């Protein structure tokens, strides 16, 4: 009995070995090596992540259509590229920084595509486009090579990247809360894709970064694989290669010695502000410099000051105009100010919303706003609220230098800032001369500057620099913090603004 059983087992083993040999001979090259990836739990879980979260997001985008559908398709493409990188990493050795740049190039190209879609004039779906583009920086967790290279741990990076995108995602929820359920569904689905979706996935399978193969091909940078051209004999060395493409961020700041390690890699592979700021941790001074230098690239078109479709006031490309006025407006209309420089605009009456976009040294004086006053992508602007109700919400985003003047009726406004610096808010004191116009006139008289009052228009008097006013003017200036300290207390992080005191 035992001999018969042993014989049957040996025969079965022989048949199995024969089948394995036959299949290995018939299989095309690379098929056997790819089989482990198909059953890799991490890859299977990634497919499940896309199935559970991304499909819901795409369904909502298909109902909305237009640019929202387009940016959602780009986002889906980015997740597809991420999966390819996860599979590819197991077939490659851990690269150096130059090799990492080449490895991440496909992902970076998709992120830049999403960022380009959100650039230019603000459209109806600007918040959707901006949310999608900013959220994609979360996928750069695959670049983590170690804690000594200036990048957050993968799980923390996903959370921090979403916090940047959530600023615009919340705007979608507020704007469409009672208007269109499809937009609300899109915003909620996008958040759940990252939090908890991608965050929990990374935390479970890649808490310490991407898994590289112990053997396999090394990832080489494009410069290492590009042959060097040789000039004809007797004519000396060849001419230097042309400058690096402007599509790759290659400014002097990016090549300075102060930027090393991971931040330098991402400066090289990224050209969009949102992409760079989400991937690499750059010191505040450098970030401010790169942001301020970007305003000079605004495309100038013909100047405009007109009411479009009876609902939207458009003020564009006004240069050096100090007496711009909108006086025939109502609470159903919006005001969009774009690409203006060295100008002053006064808005008389109540409007629904005011947006100041990509302006430099622009002064805006308004009475009342129903929804919000938004200041985005600006440099050295001044905004003054004068009405009885003024603005319930003031939002300042990606702006370097903003002087905000609040009258006594607008002190209850909610001010939201993101990625901005040098934000100062001036408020009236409790004195009898706390009204802004009265304070301006009183200070001019006290300073003996009657000639300025004669030469300046009434609009300009409201926006004279505070430096011209004497110390007796009844205003108080408050600088909004731009640095914060985070401490872990009682099971959660507590955030407090950083204050500096002189010795």
TrEMBL record:
Which regions are flagged for Pro residues bias? 234-244
Listed PROSITE patterns: C_CAP_COFACTOR_C, CAP_1
Q: Name one GO biological process term.
A: cAMP-mediated signaling
Specify where the region named Disordered lies, as residue ranges: 224-245
What GO MF terms are annotated?
A: actin binding; adenylate cyclase binding
Report the residue ranges that make up the C-CAP/cofactor C-like domain in this protein. 302-444
Of the GO CC terms on this record, one is: cytoplasm
Signal peptide residues are none
Q: Which family does it belong to?
A: Belongs to the CAP family.
Protein name (Swiss-Prot/TrEMBL): Adenylyl cyclase-associated protein
């Amino acid at each position: 009995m035992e001999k018969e059983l042993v014989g049957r087992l040996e025969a079965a083993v022989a048949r199995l070995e024969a089948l394995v040999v036959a299949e290995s001979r018939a299989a095309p090259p690379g098929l056997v090596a790819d089989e482990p990836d198909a059953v890799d739990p991490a890859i299977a879980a990634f497919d499940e992540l896309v199935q559970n979260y991304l499909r819901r997001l795409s369904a909502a985008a298909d109902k909305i259509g237009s640019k929202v559908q387009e940016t959602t398709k780009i986002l889906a493409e980015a997740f597809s590229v991420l999966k390819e990188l996860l599979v590819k990493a197991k077939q490659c050795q851990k690269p150096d920084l130059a090799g990492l740049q080449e490895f991440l190039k496909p992902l970076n190209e998709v992120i830049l595509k999403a960022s380009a879609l959100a650039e230019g004039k603000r459209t109806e779906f600007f918040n959707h486009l901006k949310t999608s583009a900013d959220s994609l920086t979360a996928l750069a967790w695959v670049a983590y090579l170690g804690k000594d290279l200036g990048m957050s741990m993968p799980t923390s990076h996903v959370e921090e990247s979403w916090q940047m995108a959530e600023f615009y995602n919340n705007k979608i929820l507020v704007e469409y809360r009672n208007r269109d359920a499809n937009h609300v569904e899109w915003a909620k689905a996008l958040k759940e894709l990252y939090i908890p979706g991608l965050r929990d996935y990374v935390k479970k399978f890649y808490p310490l970064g991407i898994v590289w193969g112990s053997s396999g091909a090394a990832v080489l940078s494009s410069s290492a694989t590009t042959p060097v051209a040789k000039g004809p004999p007797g004519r000396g060395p060849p001419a230097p290669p042309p400058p690096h493409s402007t599509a790759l961020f290659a400014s002097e700041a990016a090549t300075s010695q102060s930027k090393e390690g991971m931040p330098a890699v991402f400066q090289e592979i990224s050209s969009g502000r949102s992409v760079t700021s989400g991937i690499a941790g750059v010191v505040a001074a450098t970030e401010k410099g790169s942001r301020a230098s970007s305003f000079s690239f605004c495309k100038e078109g013909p100047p405009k000051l007109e009411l479009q479709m009876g609902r939207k006031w458009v003020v564009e490309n006004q240069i050096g105009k100090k007496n711009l006025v909108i006086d025939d407006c109502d609470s159903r209309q919006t005001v969009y100010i774009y690409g203006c420089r060295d100008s002053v605009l006064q808005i008389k009456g109540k409007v629904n919303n005011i947006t100041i976009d990509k302006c430099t040294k622009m002064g805006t004086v308004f009475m009342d706003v129903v929804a919000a006053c938004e200041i985005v992508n600006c440099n050295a602007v001044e905004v003054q609220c004068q009405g009885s109700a003024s603005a319930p919400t003031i939002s300042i985003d990606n702006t370097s230098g903003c002087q905000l003047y609040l009258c006594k009726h607008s002190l209850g406004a909610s001010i939201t800032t993101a990625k901005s610096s040098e934000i100062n808010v001036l408020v009236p004191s409790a004195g009898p001369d706390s009204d802004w116009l009265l304070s301006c006139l009183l200070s001019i008289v006290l300073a003996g500057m009657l000639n300025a009052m004669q030469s300046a228009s009434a609009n300009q008097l409201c926006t004279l620099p505070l430096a011209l006013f004497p110390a007796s003017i009844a205003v108080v200036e408050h600088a909004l913090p731009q640095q914060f300290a985070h401490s872990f207390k009682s099971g959660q992080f507590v955030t407090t603004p950083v204050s500096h005191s002189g010795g």
